[in-house]
Design a protein that fits this description.
Length: about 250
């Protein structure tokens, strides 16, 4: 059942690309259109390729937190490093951990998001619950697998799908406008248990079957190239960049 007041339920940024996310109460929209601290740092190998979850399940093991706005990586052996202040040590620890010569880079104006011309990812709490039911996992496990920036409660499952496609509406969270750009195609990461790194057998088949059965009537099916998608990627217009979105902000469809 749809709740009465749609709102921003949570905000999650990923200070180090591919590593664990961090919940924040408020996030500024940067000049590049992404959220502050989201994918601000990334780890690269000597070929300039980013180390991410598509390459290795090891990315699920370190924890990340923010201390005075700076990301701190905590490794399974107990070592901790503030990546912005101890770059050399961070690269040494990451090299040992991933088994490659690692280099840390920072982009404070846009972040190392996959889609450089787009902005925050959006999903509803109800969508996370639906996904969790497909695979008999917790909603928090669904959050960690799907890795959305903005979570909206008080709406139906797959509410976010309506915002992509021709003539799609936009929505506001507080006084920040979000335009939907594209459905988010999924990779191997959602199929993994983030704690055990074990991949679910038959994940893609089960996902696609359930996605087709639950595709919302109000969404533009032509905007979806394939059914292996969940959540959307949005864009904040330039006039709203520099503003902030907060947990608890009321959400309005425009």
């Amino acid at each position: 059942m749809e709740e009465k007041t749609p709102k921003v339920e949570s905000l999650r940024v990923f200070p180090v690309k591919a590593l664990e996310g961090v919940d924040v109460k408020e996030a500024e929209v940067l000049e590049g259109g992404t959220l502050a601290r989201d994918r601000e740092f990334a780890v690269f190998d000597t070929d300039g390729e980013v180390i991410n979850g598509k390459r290795t399940p090891l990315v699920h093991r370190p924890d990340v937190k923010l201390e005075d706005g700076a990301p701190v990586i905590s490794f399974p052996d107990g070592e901790e490093v503030k990546i912005s202040e101890e770059k050399g040590r961070a690269e040494s620890l990451l090299s040992d951990f991933f088994g490659v010569e690692a280099t840390v880079r920072r982009d404070g104006s846009l972040g190392y998001v996959d889609r450089r011309s787009m902005g925050p990812s959006v999903v509803s709490t109800a969508t996370l619950r639906e996904f969790a039911s497909w695979f008999e996992v917790t909603v928090e496990s669904a959050r960690r697998r799907l890795r959305a920036n903005v979570e909206i409660s008080g709406v139906l499952a797959f509410w976010e799908d309506r915002f992509v496609g021709e003539d799609a509406p936009s929505f506001e969270a507080g006084d920040v406008r979000f335009d939907g750009v594209t459905p988010c195609g999924r990779c191997v990461v959602p199929s993994r248990d983030p704690d055990t790194e074990e991949e679910k057998d038959g994940f893609r088949k089960t996902f696609i079957e359930n996605r087709r059965e639950t595709f919302p009537e109000q969404a533009d099916e032509d905007a979806f190239d394939h059914p292996y998608t969940l959540m959307i990627i949005g864009r904040v217009p330039e006039e709203d960049r520099g503003k902030s979105v907060s947990v608890g902000d009321e959400v309005r469809v425009l």
